Amino acid sequence: MTDSDKNKEQLLNELIDLRKKIIELDEIKNSPKSTEKQLKKSEQLYNLIFKNSSDIIGITTFSLNPVYIYINPSIKSIGYKQEELLGKSPFDFIHPDDRKKLFPLLKKYVNAKVKKLLTGKESTITERIEYRFKDKEGNWCDFQSTGNIVGNQLLFITRDITDQKKTEEALSKSQQEFASLFESSPEALIYTDEKSNILDINPRFTELFSYTLEEIKGRNIDDGIIHPSDKMEEGKKLTEKALKGYFYCETIRKKKDGTFFPVVISGSQVIIDDQLRGMITLYQDVTERQNMLNKLRKSEEKYRNLFENMPGAYYRTDREGNLIMINPEGAKLFGYNSLEDILG
C-alpha cells in the first residue's frame, strides 16, 4: 500500500468519524424538540383518556381539606356539570359517616410528601376506599375510589358501584332468606353439589337420620350412608333425575343406627347464574302414615272377614241403590256364588 493510499484511507476514516459526530450533534440539537413532541403527544393521549373514561376522574389540591381543581365529564352520570364541583371540597358531597374513611388516607399522603421532602425518596401510596357520594338530586351513590399523589396534587379515579351494591345486597338478602328457609324447614333437607357431595344439612335432617353436618360433610350421598344395601342403585338413579330436573319417590332409607324407615323423597336441581350447582333433596318421614294405613287395612280386612262369615244374607248398596257388596250367604240366596257373578 502506497503513502497515497494510506492518506486516502485515513481521510475516509476521518470523514466517517466526522459524520458520526455531526449525527450526534444533530440528535442533541433535535432532542428537546423530540421530547417536546412526545410530551405533547402524551398530554393529548392522557387528556383523551380523561375526557372519555367512563370512570369519574378528579384532581384535588394537596391538603387535609382538598378542593377539586379538575373533574372529567363523567361526573354528568350523577347529574352534575363539571363547573359545579370545581373549587369545592369532596367532603361537601361525601356522606358524614364516610368522611372518616378519607381523613386517614389524606394523612398518609401528607406524611408521604413530608418524607419525600426530608429524604428525597418517593413513597407510592395507592389505596381503594368505598364511600357514599351525594348526586345532584340528593340521593346517595356508592362510590369506589383509588387515590394517588401526582406532583403537588391528588388524583382520584372513581367508579359508581351503586348498581353492583344493590345486586350484592339483593343476593345477600336472597341467601339469608334461603338459609332461613333451609334451616327452619319442618322436613329434612340436604344440599349436595353437582357430584352429589354433601355441602349442608338442616336440623331436621340431623333429627331424622341422627347425623351431624360434621360427620357427613363432603361425603357422597350415594355411598350408602342413608341407603339400605338393596336401595343403592335406586339412590343413584334418583340423583341422576334430580340433576336433570325433579323427582318424587316413596321408598325406604336408613338411619345412623341402622333402622329402616319409610320416606317420601323429592329433589330438584340448583341452578345459579345458568350453571348447575347441585341439588336440594327433601326427606319426609312417613312412618306414622304407613302405620295408619296398615291399621286401616287390618280394620278393613277384619270387617270384610266378619261380613263374609255372617250366617245370614247381607249386602250393601250405593246411594243410587246399586249393589256394591254381598256376602256369600246372600249370593247363594239369589242363586249366585259371589258378587262378581251377580254383577256379571
Automatic annotation (TrEMBL):
Annotated PANTHER family: PAC DOMAIN-CONTAINING PROTEIN, PHYTOCHROME-LIKE PROTEIN CPH1
Q: Note one Pfam family from the annotation.
A: PAS_9
Question: Is the Transferase keyword given for this protein?
Answer: yes
| Protein name from the UniProt record | histidine kinase
Keyword Kinase attached: yes
Database matches in SMART domains: PAC, PAS
Concerning Gene3D superfamilies, the annotation shows: PAS domain
Q: Give the PAS domain ranges.
A: 78-113, 174-246, 299-340
